[in-house]
């Protein structure tokens, strides 16, 4: 690298090691940053850890993390970084260092420079012994050589941050769409809200049209059951009050037309207006309680390992905890064949069910024996099956029937006896069709993020080495966008 460098210490007003103690863990309180929350420059607090005020005060004696500070992980893993966002009250966990850039230094530029191959090589390589290291000592950290571009650092940081912001926005959109799908599932198949909405209006003397409008308003989230109870009893008044509430819900921030008038009306007509008693509580009239075996079966197909790549082999290790997803790659096993999976199947880790590892397969590939593959028995109900298995209740059930103390595994026979409310198949198909466009949009965003990550990883070393000009970098970014 021909560009000039400065030591990290010269660019920071603070380099503070974390307290060398374990905080008191609490169920809620103040966020404790942990290395597992920091990956590829992103601070992921979807599964946060907390401590109390007393321990928080002890842990910030050396420095109170502020927005714009950089957190650096010293080991396990080593060399990961993230920036403290606005409005986050937090403290460092263990094996972390807080970096506070000087006011004359663009903090985002320093954040990106620390992730560059040039700096990461310094982090992982001990020049004195000629061997890789497993942790970074503070003197070594302070002495890191950071590449400098004094007249272009603001622009370099802007280009790279714009790409990262788009990646993060896509991730947030996907998370929101996932949550919407789960909320719809819960409303239809757990809380039976469309049925209850019709029943409320029926009790008020409303005709079938009024009942349908009430169900539509409930389905699209325009009104709650409590608000519906408070509406006027006259069914003509109900129609006048519900029409504007429903039409206001049609515009959608994701550009998806899933709440069209025709769709809402057709869906509402699928639900009855009465709940009836069953052995396991109330269910909509015409519905029954069944088991998982009524809607799904285990996949038993196999595939040659020679046909697989690291990217389409799924094992327990590369499935994400408590999320619908997998990491980019995992090692292929040294065997001839493995169980296979196809797009649209639901994969669930059978090891330690409390981790709640699940993936709605978006491509074909192979899986380890400890990853269960589920096929929907009804064509067109794959999204319904996925949401049945995504529920915390399902994983709690798996855990209750699991075998083994150190490495509990779900019992495959018991799993198929999991109780689910069974609607007429038309309702399950309608749900799957509705949310299928969510998952298609999610897949599109994931594909774009793959391209954006490749762009980020290409731009970062070339911009910091001076090999690529800012104009060339912007052109590449625009081509992807």
What are its keywords?
single chain, 25 strands, Adenine-n6-DNA-methyltransferase TaqI, Chain A, domain 2, four-stranded antiparallel β-sheet, alpha+beta, 481 residues, globular
Protein model, in words:
This protein is 41% helix and 18% strand. By secondary structure, the chain is an alpha+beta fold. It has a 4-stranded antiparallel beta sheet. The chain has a 4-stranded antiparallel beta sheet with strand order 17-24-21-22, with helices on one face. It has a 4-stranded mixed beta sheet with strand order 18-20-23-19, with no helix packed on it. The chain folds into 3 domains: 5-148, Adenine-n6-DNA-methyltransferase TaqI, Chain A, domain 2 (Alpha-Beta Complex), CATH 3.90.220.20; 151-280 and 429-481, no CATH class; 293-422, DNA methylase specificity domains (Adenine-n6-DNA-methyltransferase TaqI, Chain A, domain 2). It is globular and about 80 Å long. Helix 6 (153-190) packs parallel to helix 16 (470-480) and helix 8 (208-219) packs parallel to helix 10.
What's the topology here?
Elements: E1 5-7, H1 8-11, E2 12-17, E3 30-33, E4 38-39, E5 42-43, E6 49-51, H2 53-59, E7 70-73, E8 81-83, E9 90-92, E10 96-101, H3 107-115, H4 117-124, E11 125-126, E12 131-132, H5 138-142, E13 145-147, H6 153-190, H7 193-203, H8 208-219, H9 225-230, H10 235-247, H11 261-268, E14 275-278, E15 281-284, E16 288-291, E17 296-298, E18 302-304, E19 313-314, E20 337-341, E21 346-349, E22 358-360, E23 365-367, E24 371-376, H12 382-390, H13 392-400, H14 412-415, E25 419-422, H15 425-465, H16 470-480
Parallel strand pairs: 3-9, 19-23
Antiparallel strand pairs: 1-13, 2-10, 3-6, 4-5, 7-8, 7-10, 11-12, 14-15, 16-25, 17-24, 18-20, 20-23, 21-22, 21-24
């Amino acid at each position: 690298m021909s560009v000039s460098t400065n030591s990290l210490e010269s660019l920071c007003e603070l380099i503070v090691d974390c307290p060398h103690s374990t905080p008191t863990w609490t169920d809620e309180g103040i966020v404790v940053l942990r290395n597992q929350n920091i990956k590829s420059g992103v601070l992921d607090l979807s599964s946060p850890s907390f401590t109390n005020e007393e321990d928080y005060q002890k842990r910030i004696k050396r420095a109170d993390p502020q927005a714009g500070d950089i957190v650096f992980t010293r080991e396990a893993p080593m060399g990961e970084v993230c920036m403290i966002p606005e409005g986050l009250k937090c403290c460092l966990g263990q094996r972390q260092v807080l970096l506070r850039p000087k006011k004359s230094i663009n903090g985002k530029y320093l954040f990106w420079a620390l992730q560059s191959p040039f700096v990461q090589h310094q982090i992982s390589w001990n020049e004195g012994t000629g061997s890789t290291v497993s942790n970074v000592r503070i003197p070594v950290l302070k002495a890191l050589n950071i590449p400098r571009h004094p007249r272009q650092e603001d622009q370099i940081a802007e280009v790279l941050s714009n790409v990262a912001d788009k990646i993060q926005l896509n991730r947030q959109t996907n998370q929101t769409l996932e949550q919407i799908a789960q909320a719809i599932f819960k409303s239809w198949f757990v809380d039976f809200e469309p049925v209850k909405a019709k029943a409320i209006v029926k009790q008020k003397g409303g005709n079938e049209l009024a009942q349908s409008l009430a169900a539509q308003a409930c389905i699209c989230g325009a009104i709650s059951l409590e608000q519906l109870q408070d509406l006027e009893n006259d069914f003509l008044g109900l129609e006048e009050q519900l029409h504007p509430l429903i039409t206001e819900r049609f515009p959608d921030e994701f550009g998806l037309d899933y709440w069209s008038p025709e769709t809402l009306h057709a869906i509402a007509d699928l639900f009855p207006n009465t709940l009836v008693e069953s052995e396991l509580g109330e269910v909509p009239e015409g519905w029954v309680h069944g088991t998982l075996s009524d809607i799904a079966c285990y996949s038993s197909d196999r595939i040659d390992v020679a046909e697989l790549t690291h990217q389409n082999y799924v094992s327990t290790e590369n499935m994400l905890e408590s999320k619908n997803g997998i990491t980019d790659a995992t090692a292929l096993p040294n065997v001839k064949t493995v169980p296979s999976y196809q797009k649209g199947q639901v994969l669930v880790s059978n090891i330690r069910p409390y981790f709640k590892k699940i993936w709605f397969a978006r491509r074909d590939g192979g899986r380890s024996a400890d990853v269960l593959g589920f096929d929907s028995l009804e064509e067109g109900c794959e999204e319904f099956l996925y949401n049945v298995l995504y529920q915390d209740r399902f994983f709690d059930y798996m855990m209750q029937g699991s075998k083994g103390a150190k490495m509990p595994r779900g019992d495959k026979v018991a799993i198929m006896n999991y109780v689910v409310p069974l609607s007429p198949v038309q309702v399950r198909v309608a749900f799957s069709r509705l949310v299928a466009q969510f998952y298609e949009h999610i897949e599109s965003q994931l594909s774009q993020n793959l391209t954006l990550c490749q762009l980020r990883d290409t731009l970062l070393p070339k911009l910091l080495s001076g090999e690529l000009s800012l104009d060339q970098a912007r052109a590449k970014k625009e081509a992807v966008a």
